[in-house]
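in:
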C-alpha cells in the first residue's frame, strides 16, 4: 500500500461520543466526523476492534447507573442516555456540554500515512494503538501511539495491546522497584488477571490470585496458578493468610477499591510479618505492606480497621504516570514484549462483539457495564 492511499480515504466516518448535560443525563451516541488526512509523522488506522475496559466506562457512562440506560438518538444515529446524580454532575463540570471521545485503545490496519519514513513504514501494518478516542471507524494518530504487530496478527488481538498488558507488566515492575518479592491481585480471573498469571509463571514471581467464584479457582488452577483464593468462601481469611505465608507477598494491586478488602490484605500481611518478627512491638512489624488501588469495581468507601501496625501504605496506581516514571527506554522494552507475545502471554478473550450501533443499545450497555469476568466486550466499528 502506497502513500497515494490518501485518495481512497472516506471524507467522513462514524464515531462514538459521550456528552454530559447539566440536567443530570449523560448521552452516548453515534455521530459523523471528518477523517483527517495525516501529516508527516501521522498515520490513518482503519479501526477493526476496540475493547471496553473498566477504565473506559467512566467517560462513556459518566458514573451513571447503567441499569437505568434508555434508548435515545434519532432515526439517523442511535444513542443511549443514562441519568447521573447531582454529585456526579458536580464532579464533572469541566465536561458539561462537550461531546467527549471514548475508547482508550484499539487495533486495526494502517491505510494511509504521512510523508516521514517512520509513517511510511507502517503502511499496511496491523497495529495496536492508544488514543482515548478508539471507538470510531478511522483514527488519525501519531506514529508513537502505534505498536506494530507481526505480519498476520488479527487486529482483534492487537486491540488490547496497551491497557491490560502494560498494567500487568507495570505491577510486576512496581513490585521489583519497591523491593517486594511477590504480589497479590484481586481480580485474578479477569483478562488482566490471566495475563498477570502468565507473566508471573514465566518470570518466576510469586502471585496470590483472588477471585470471587469457585469456578474461577478451577479455571486459574488449570492454567498453572498455585495460589488462588475465593473471596466468597467462608475460609477466605485463613486461605489468604496461608498464601501470604507461602509467597511472602507484601504488595497488592486491588481493582475492587471499595469495601474492606484493602484493609483485610494489609491485616493478613501484618499477621504473617508478625509471626516472623523476633519480638513484639506495639507499633507492629517493621515489614512495609503496600496496597495500590487501580480500579473501582466497588464505588463505596474504602474501609480500614487499622489492625496492621504502622509500616504500611495505601494509594492509587495508574498506568500513564507509571510509564512516565520508568522512562522511555523501559517503557519501550515493555511495549516490545507485548508485541512479541500478543497472542500468548497477552492474549485477550471476549464474551461479546458489538458494532457501534450495538454499543449504544441499552440492553448491551447494561451487560457490558457489569464488567463480568469472561464477558468482556469488543467493539468492531467497521463490522
Amino acid at each position: 500500500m502506497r502513500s497515494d492511499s490518501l485518495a481512497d480515504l472516506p471524507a467522513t466516518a462514524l464515531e462514538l461520543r459521550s456528552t454530559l448535560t447539566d440536567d443530570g443525563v449523560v448521552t452516548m451516541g453515534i455521530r459523523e466526523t471528518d477523517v483527517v488526512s495525516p501529516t508527516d509523522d501521522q498515520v490513518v488506522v482503519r479501526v477493526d476492534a476496540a475493547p471496553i475496559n473498566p477504565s473506559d466506562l467512566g467517560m462513556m457512562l459518566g458514573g451513571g447507573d447503567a441499569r437505568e440506560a434508555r434508548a435515545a438518538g434519532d432515526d439517523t444515529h442511535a444513542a443511549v442516555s443514562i441519568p447521573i446524580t447531582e454529585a456526579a454532575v458536580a464532579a464533572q463540570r469541566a465536561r458539561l456540554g462537550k461531546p467527549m471521545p471514548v475508547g482508550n485503545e484499539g487495533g486495526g490496519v494502517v491505510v494511509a500515512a504521512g510523508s516521514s519514513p517512520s509513517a511510511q513504514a507502517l503502511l499496511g501494518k496491523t497495529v495496536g494503538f492508544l488514543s482515548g478516542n478508539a471507538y470510531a471507524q478511522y483514527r488519525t494518530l501519531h506514529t508513537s501511539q502505534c505498536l506494530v504487530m507481526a505480519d498476520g496478527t488479527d487486529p482483534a488481538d492487537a486491540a488490547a495491546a496497551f491497557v491490560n498488558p502494560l498494567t500487568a507488566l507495570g505491577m510486576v515492575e512496581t513490585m521489583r522497584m519497591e523491593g517486594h518479592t511477590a504480589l497479590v491481585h484481586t481480580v485474578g480471573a479477569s483478562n488482566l488477571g490471566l495475563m498477570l498469571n502468565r507473566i508471573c509463571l514465566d518470570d518466576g514471581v510469586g502471585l496470590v490470585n483472588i477471585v470471587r467464584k469457585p469456578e474461577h479457582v478451577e479455571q486459574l488452577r488449570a492454567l498453572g496458578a498455585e495460589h488462588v483464593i475465593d473471596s466468597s468462601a467462608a475460609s477466605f481469611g485463613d486461605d489468604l493468610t496461608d498464601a501470604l505465608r507461602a509467597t511472602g507477598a507484601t504488595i497488592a494491586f486491588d481493582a475492587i477499591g471499595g469495601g474492606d478488602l484493602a484493609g483485610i490484605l494489609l491485616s493478613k500481611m501484618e499477621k504473617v510479618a508478625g509471626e516472623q518478627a523476633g519480638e513484639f512491638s506495639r507499633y507492629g512489624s517493621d515489614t512495609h505492606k503496600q496496597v495500590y488501588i487501580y480500579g473501582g469495581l466497588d464505588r463505596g468507601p474504602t474501609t480500614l480497621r487499622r489492625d496492621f501496625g504502622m509500616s504500611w501504605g495505601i494509594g492509587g496506581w495508574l498506568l500513564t504516570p507509571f510509564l512516565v516514571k520508568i522512562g522511555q527506554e523501559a517503557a519501550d522494552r515493555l511495549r516490545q514484549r507485548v508485541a512479541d507475545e500478543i497472542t500468548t502471554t497477552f492474549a485477550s478473550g471476549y464474551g461479546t462483539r458489538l458494532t457501534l450501533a450495538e454499543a449504544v443499545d441499552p440492553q448491551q450497555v447494561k451487560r457490558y457495564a457489569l464488567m463480568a469476568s469472561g464477558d468482556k466486550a469488543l467493539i468492531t466499528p467497521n463490522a
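note: The chain has a mean pLDDT of 95.
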